Every structure is written in C-alpha cells, then in structure tokens.
Amino acid sequence: MKKFLNDVDDFLHESLSGFAEAHKDIVHVNLDPFYVTRKKINPNKVLLVSGGGSGHEPLHTGYIGQGMLDIACPGHIFTSPTPDQMIAAIDCSQPKNGVLFIVKNYSGDVMNFEMAAEMISSEHKTILINDDAAVINSSYTEGRRGVAGTVIVEKVVGSLAEDGGDLESCHRLGEKVNRNCSSIGVALTSCTIPAAGKTTFDISESDIEFGVGIHGEPGRKREKIRDADSIVEDMLQVIYKDFEDKNLALNASSEVLLLINGFTSTPLSELYLLFNASKKLLNNKQIPIARSLVGNYTTALDMAGASITICLLDDEIKKHWDTRVLTPNLRWGV
Amino acid sequence: MKKFLNDVDDFLHESLSGFAEAHKDIVHVNLDPFYVTRKKINPNKVLLVSGGGSGHEPLHTGYIGQGMLDIACPGHIFTSPTPDQMIAAIDCSQPKNGVLFIVKNYSGDVMNFEMAAEMISSEHKTILINDDAAVINSSYTEGRRGVAGTVIVEKVVGSLAEDGGDLESCHRLGEKVNRNCSSIGVALTSCTIPAAGKTTFDISESDIEFGVGIHGEPGRKREKIRDADSIVEDMLQVIYKDFEDKNLALNASSEVLLLINGFTSTPLSELYLLFNASKKLLNNKQIPIARSLVGNYTTALDMAGASITICLLDDEIKKHWDTRVLTPNLRWGV
User: Fold this and answer.
1) Do A223 and A165 share a structural domain?
2) What pLDDT digit, counting tens, does each position of B48-78 carry?
3) Smallest Cβ distance to A21: which of B206, B269, B276?
4) Does A76 qualify as catalytic in the annotation?
5) Residues of A in Cβ contact (< 8 Å) with B304
6) pTM, whole model, 2 decimals?
7) Does residue B207 sit in the same domain as residue B142?
8) Which entry of A186, B42, B157, B322 is 20 to 30 Å from B63 by CA?
9) Residue of chain B nearest A224, judged by CA positions
10) Is B265 within 8 Å of A264 when comparing Cβ atoms?
C-alpha cells in the first residue's frame, strides 16, 4: 500500500483539518467529535444533515453550503459515524424548523442515525437512499445500497430547503428523487483501506466486478473486461430493468439526468468516454438527456471504476437541480 | 492494462464527444481537426488559446468558458497538437484584438504553437509556462516543464482578458504569474498510455518518484516512501529554493495561493491531508495562505501522486483569481 499519510490513526483528523483550511470561507469543521457545518447556519430553514463513513469524498462534506447540505458527520473510513457526532452538530445549530436526515442505506448508518434521531428534540424525518440497482442485500446492507444518486438527492432537496420548503415537502421531494434514481457501478480494481494496508478484494488484470459497491462489496458477477460500449450496454440494461420494476417510464417523452461517477482512479477522459457510450444507447431509445454530471462525486477511496446513475426528471426536480449551489465540490448557478 | 475504452484509436474522439455533450451549454467541440471553443466566441476580446497533449484533463479543455480560455487544442495522449488544429480554431473565431497562446514548455508544443503563430494573420504573443522546479531539461523539454501552475495562469489571464485587457497587458500578467508559480510533483505509481498498453515506468511498492513530470518523466530521484509530512517538507524545500533563486521573497508579508493538485488516482482525502501538511510548514515560516485550490486539475492519466504549487500573490493576481469563472471544471464567483 502506498498512500500519502502519517500515522494511520490521524488520517481523518489531518484530512479534515486540511479540508477546513482550504474551504474556510464555506464550512466550519469540528474535530472532536467530527462534524462539518456551514460556516453560518440558518436555524430557520429545514436543517439537512447527512454523513457516513469517510472514503467517499467529496461525499458528504464537500456538499455543504448554500443550496445543499447544512451538516455532514464523517465516520472513520468506511465506518458509520456515531450518534454523538450528529447530536453535537445539531445541538450547536439549534434548528427551529426541523431536521431532515439524508442517509445512505447501510445498516450501521441506519442504526446510528436512528439513535441520533431519537435523542434530539427537534421534529425530524429521514430519507433512506437506495439507488443501487446492482444487488438486494449485501455486505453492509439490508435492502439496496445507497450510492451516487445521493448527490442528486442532496442537491435537489438542498435547493428546496434553501427556498424555505418545510420538512414535509423536503422529505417528499427527497423520496421522489431517490425513487427516480437508479445506479450501477463497475470496478476495475479494488480499493485499499489505509488501516487495513491491503486491497479489500483480489481481482485479476483481465476482470471487472460488475455491480460493485462503493466499499468494494461484491456486485452481481465477476466478468472479463470488454470494450466500454458493451460494458455500458449491460449497465444500462440493469438500470432500464429497475425503472421497469419501479413502474417508471423511460422513453422519448421522459427527460433524464445522466451522471457518470468516477470512483477515483479512472481518468476524467475515460468518464467522458463512458458518457458518450451511454449517450449513444440512450439516443437509440430516444431518451433525452436533459442534464448531465461527469466526475468523481461518490468515490471508493482509490478504486478504479465508475458508476452510471440515471435520474428521471420532472419539472420540480429540474427546477431544483438548476438552482444556485455553492459548496466546496459542487458549484453552479453562477 | 484495464481501462474503459473501445478501439484505442477512437479514444480521443469518443472522449471529446462525451465532453461535448456533457458541457454543450458552455463549449463547442470540433472533431476534425480536434479543437474546443467557447460556445459563443467574442471576437473583440484577446483570444486565449491553449492546448497540448491529452491525458491531463481537465487541462485544458475543461477550462474553456467565461473568465478563462477561449480555445483549447487537444493532441492525442501525451502528444502535441498540430498547427492545423490551432489555425482552424483561430480562423473560425476571427479575433480582432490579438491572440495569446498559453503553452506549456514541452519541445513539441513549443514548435507546433510557433508554427501556428507564424501562419496566422492576427497579432499574437505567447506565454511559455515553466513552473516545475523539479528539473531543468528532461525527456520532452529544453528548460523547465510546465505543470499545474498552468491552471493559475489560465485563470488569472482569463480574467484580465474578459475585462477587456489588451494583448500586451494579458501577456505581461501571464508572464508574471508564471514567474510567481513554483511546483513540484511526486508519483506513487506510473501512468499507462492506452496505446502503449503498459505502464510508462516501473516503480516498486515501496518507492516514490520525487519530482516526477506529468507524463511520467523522471524527476530528481527515486526514494523510499515516507510519511506525508516528511515528503511535503522536501517538496516545499525545493519550492522555497526556487523562489530564492528567482529573487522572490516568501515570508510573513507575502501572501500565497496553495494548490494541491492530484494526478488522478490519489483520493481527495489524501490531497486534503497534503494540504494540511503544507499548511503546517507554511505556518512555521509565517507565510500566509490567502487562497487555496485542492483537486485533480492537471493530471497524468491514471497516475497516483500529487504536486504542490505555490503562487506568490499580489493585489493584481488576487483580484483576477477571485473573479467569476464558469468553465466545465473550474467555477466560482457565484
């Protein structure tokens, strides 16, 4: 294992300290317990709180700021944050109009956010993200996993909360976006957890893991690497099937957001190639790509690979996708 | 080699096609010959033209847009673009107030941009970027290499050109920013050129290449991997010495921009850890970090590793760093 680090036990502390300094105009980082908030919290809006194990950066800390999250609680690498982090962050924010938890569906996260929710006095609701169409139940999950669709939920709900949407409306919109998102990922390499010091799984020079999770969890099958067009075709088949199962129509009269998400070690040029491959196939089905996002938005430490997320849009989702966002790692509406 | 690709000869065409579709609100991509322009060129401003071999994305195509570049000409991977690309792009832009070429100092790029410059009728000047303090002369270079400081030059000069700065002023400012930038990189792994199908260089599991170039060119020395603080200390020593040699003072009364640039495969969390390590050492010398940038801005295909760039600021550079920029991969001033 070769990584830039000092003592492995200090990794998160040092990384968050660097993040704090680099983005001190936008965020405030608390180091004991770990939590990150907007530099200036507005207690009158619905407080959007997310978090999860570290190692998926920029998720979630990089999405704190105007038009997106208020708080993120980072756990250690691939380890759930604990309720004390969430409670401390919420206590210092003094929300007057409720708390909305945005939680990726992993058992540890679900349990810890539930415990925090029980212990705060504010009104609260939770959106469980489970956009990964690859597998039902897996290493850390009962039900489907939450992956890159999380970014879309956080952006869209963040916009409504910024506009003054109430807890009920924010929750309803988040549930809709989660339902409208379907994702699937492919790994070319494993990732390496610093404290483990070795790769999470073994994979040969000629194989890919089809349907991999963002912690290196197994997907649907181990396959030989093939040309990108053929891999993307199989990925989109899984997504199409998922929309069918959800009874959501994908056709010439639907509009979609296409997110090509890198896990870290796949060059941007390859992510654009995957975007192109996806575009050709969506064009064949006459499905219009109305919005797009390409880059490393929900990563898996140093894994090489990528996921495709399709989010079925409607006027409400489109409107809130397009609004101004100003966070360390997602910015537009300039 | 495991990469997302189809026929290796189609790689650039397919990647640029995806880029074109994903950012069609900002850029126009011409596929024969390859060049990328703003969607709407303003012929009355100084036309900023850059380019170079592909494989460093988002450099340069990702920096086209308001407040930054007008044109970028991508060559094949790690291969200079040719004069016909630059000439075709400039011809279709019909600049009325001159052309400023921003060229990284590699022999192929220098030669091809010089040939293009001789063949266009517009008034023109060239800024040669050579911020890499690692080595003088190397595989593809006479003199020092141009690396991540390029992004800072393109941003700052882009702002002045957007403001209506004339060719002379833009050239002068670019030369100043280049002189004020000093960079050094470290590789943990090699990169792999798709057409070569194998790593550019061999490196053991316990070594780093100190002073590596963005094509995997050799740096100053092959060393054992050590803790990040110690690597960063050696990197900053090279940068401090370079500022000394240039007769530019770095001290408590100077302000700097600190750029931690990833080459691709190093996770964002490690880049922030490097930012933190750099910050501690700059603090020791009481050098204030007034601006910061952390991420993959000048990459080397799939290489793991990172570079540090320090840019000495003054009021003029700060002002133009802070202005609004709206490109596919650099956005602020929201």
Assistant:
1) no
2) 999 999 999 999 999 999 999 999 999 999 9
3) B276
4) no
5) 2, 265, 302
6) 0.98
7) no
8) A186
9) B2
10) yes
What is the domain extent for residue B261? 181-329
Chain A residues touching residue B25 (CB < 8 angstroms):
none
Domain count, chain A: 2
**Of the candidates B2, B18, B292, which has its C-beta nearest A272's C-beta?**
B18
For an interface test with A, give the residue of B13, B77, B268, B309 to mutate (most A CBs within 10 A). B268
How near does any CA of chain A get to the CA of B280, in Å?
A: 10
Q: What is the CATH number of the domain that holds A259?
A: 3.30.1180.20
All residue ranges of chain A with pLDDT < 50 are none
> Tell me: the pLDDT tens digits for A152-165?
999 999 999 999 99
**Digit-coded pLDDT (tens) for B212-259:** 999 999 999 999 999 999 999 999 999 999 999 999 999 999 999 999
A71-107 pLDDT, tens digit per residue, is: 999 999 999 999 999 999 999 999 999 999 999 999 9
Same domain? For B166 and B191 the reply is: no
A47 and A164 co-located in one domain: yes
Contacts B292 to A, Cβ<8 Å:
21-23
Crossing angle of helices B149-162 and B315-322, in 10° steps, is: 80
Q: Tens of pLDDT along A137-156? A: 887 888 999 999 999 999 99
Tokens representing B257?
A: 């921009």
Are the C-beta atoms of A210 and A196 separated by less than 8 Å?
no
B279–A228 CB contact, under 8 Å: no
